[in-house]
Write a structure and sequence with these properties.
Layout: H1 11-15, E1 24-26, E2 29-32, H2 39-46, E3 53-56, H3 68-82, H4 84-90, H5 106-136, H6 138-148, H7 152-169, H8 173-186, H9 195-204, E4 209-217, H10 218-228, E5 232-236, H11 276-285, E6 296-300, E7 316-320, E8 329-331, E9 338-342, H12 347-354, E10 372-375, H13 376-383, H14 385-417, H15 419-431, H16 437-461, H17 463-491
Parallel strand pairs: 2-9, 3-4, 3-6, 4-5, 6-7, 7-9
Antiparallel strand pairs: 1-8, 2-10
Helix pairs in contact: 3-4, 3-5, 3-7, 3-8, 5-6, 5-7, 6-7, 6-17, 8-10, 13-17, 14-16, 14-17, 15-16
Length: 501
């Protein structure tokens, strides 16, 4: 359950006609798989042969612990710092991960590090503080909700996302796609799903359509889709031509290359495919998902809880290799009836097993995993009074949404009303001659400043809502821990008898 609920599946819609029904419910099945699995074994356990749509996230889902969008940004840095000819020469020597140092070319290495620092130091530190660190520090996490609104992860991720989109726009599309293909090939051993797995799944589920849904930009998402042989890719999109993508309609200095963009995307034509926006895009592409009789499955690492809203649309959701797995409690109107939680083996780990070696990647979480398969009644028994607390928090959230609805809608209407002026300023900039562009850019900045002020106003209006959203998110995490508590206790070593007497 996401908090607050997305505009697509809001509380008002879910509870209409529900009377005094509680706003939350445990799922029908909550299954945690103890031992790491390969993708096919996971499908045998969690994906029905009648499944019509299977949605797969990209970052840290298809590759263990790797954000491929972020790595594409560093691949662009290497292209700019070392040059394409030298990178071609060194490709056989390169390893996985972000940084690549070339000691035999000290000047090129210095240039590479300088470009990397100029493009990624600011957005990287911002995301480290308000994303990664805030997720693990309660006081900072609460401040993030107050500062960025009831969906702070989505707001914070927008900063590195825009930085990457600006960097992509500075290169020809063919060059970016070549870098994306090379990046994926280099990380092949860390894949958890490959083309053979997708072919096997189609043989088992003859009516299934496999979709990658990711917040990553088109070049890396489409490259991954081609690598796996999926049916469709739903990703972040902007205005683009055959030669080059436009820069995002955001002029923040964080991560933006020096100089004016060659072309800027209309705001109305750019879509960051993150959070509940993924659900709207999936429904537009696959309207059958609205049919409750259509079986659908989502597989995601849901890092920092970013895909928890998937429970609202998909019948079965599976978190893999996740630092923020799904809670067994969802909203009353949520579609999800089953939640699975598992670790997926990489190609390197599967190869090791084939050789008889019990090797696991050292980056895996060290926390003990338990195996459990609970029904709704068993979940509710384990939750005890926490179930009533969740209902109370959800009702408080719903009440706060109702109280703020008038002010929120007025501010949002003003924000939407500004969109034509932004698009007009973008069009004027794109059409301007070189000598006129500075004036057009200044006008665009002025309108974007108005947008930023309206967005800040919405965050202030929503602050009481954000406080309640924070409380509900934390309680949902407690619900998962509470459901697993008896199984974790069983893992604890037995206490030694007292030596006295």
């Amino acid at each position: 359950m996401s908090a607050p609920r997305s505009a697509l599946f809001g509380l008002d819609r879910d509870l209409q006609g529900a009377g005094d029904a509680p706003p939350t419910q445990a799922v029908s099945r909550f299954c945690v798989h103890e031992a790491p699995l390969d993708f096919r074994e996971l499908c045998l356990r969690a994906v029905s042969p009648r499944t019509r749509v299977l949605v797969i996230d990209l970052d840290r889902t298809i590759h263990l612990g790797r954000n491929m969008g972020e790595l594409l940004g560093w691949e662009i840095v290497a292209h700019l710092g070392y040059g394409p000819a030298y990178l071609d020469e060194l490709e056989p020597l390169r390893g996985v991960g972000r940084l690549f140092l070339a000691p035999k070319r000290p000047l090129a290495t210095v240039r590479y590090l300088g470009i990397g620092a100029s493009l990624w130091a600011s957005p990287g530190l911002f995301y480290f503080w308000w994303g990664k660190l805030a997720f693990h520090r309660a006081s900072l996490r609460r401040r993030a909700f107050r500062r960025f609104g009831p969906e702070p992860v989505r707001a914070v991720q927008r900063v590195p996302q825009h930085a990457l989109l600006h960097q992509i726009a500075a290169l020809p599309s063919a060059t970016v796609r070549e870098l994306a293909d090379r990046l994926l090939a280099r990380h092949a051993a860390e894949q958890t799903i490959d083309a053979a797995d997708i072919a096997w799944l189609r043989a088992r589920c003859p009516d299934v359509r496999v979709v990658i849904s990711s917040a990553s930009p088109r070049p890396i998402a489409e490259a991954a889709g081609a690598l796996l042989g999926v049916d469709a890719v739903v990703c972040t999109e902007l205005d683009e031509t055959e030669e080059r993508a436009a820069a995002p309609c955001d002029l923040s200095p964080r991560g933006r290359p020096r100089g004016a963009p060659l072309r800027i995307s209309r705001q109305s034509r750019q879509r960051i495919n993150a959070g509940p926006a993924k659900l709207a895009a999936l429904l537009a592409r696959f309207p059958e998902l609205a049919d409750p009789d259509v079986e659908s499955v989502g597989v995601t690492d849901t890092g920092y809880g970013e895909d928890h809203s998937w429970t609202e649309l998909l019948g079965t959701v599976v978190d893999v290799n996740s630092d923020a797995p799904f809670s067994p409690v969802v909203a009353r109107g949520a579609r999800a009836r089953a939640i699975h939680s598992a670790s997926l083996l990489t190609r390197r780990e599967r190869d090791a097993r084939a050789r008889g070696e019990a090797w696991l990647d050292p980056r895996r979480h060290a926390a003990a995993r338990v195996a459990c398969d609970l029904s709704r009644r068993e979940i509710e028994a384990r939750l005890g009074p926490l179930a009533d607390e969740l209902d109370s928090l959800a009702r408080a959230l719903e009440g706060c949404e109702a109280e703020l609805s008038s002010a929120r809608e007025a501010a949002r209407r003003a924000l939407v009303g500004l969109e034509p002026a932004i698009d007009s300023a973008v069009d004027d900039y794109n059409a301007a001659s070189p000598e006129r562009r500075p004036a057009m850019l200044a006008e665009l900045r002025r309108v974007l400043d108005e947008r930023a002020a309206l967005e800040a106003r919405i965050v202030r209006i929503e602050r009481p809502l954000s406080e309640r959203a924070y409380a509900l998110v934390v309680a949902l995490e407690r619900a998962r821990a509470k459901a697993l508590e008896p199984d974790l206790a069983a893992l604890a070593p037995p206490r030694l008898a007292s030596a006295k007497g």
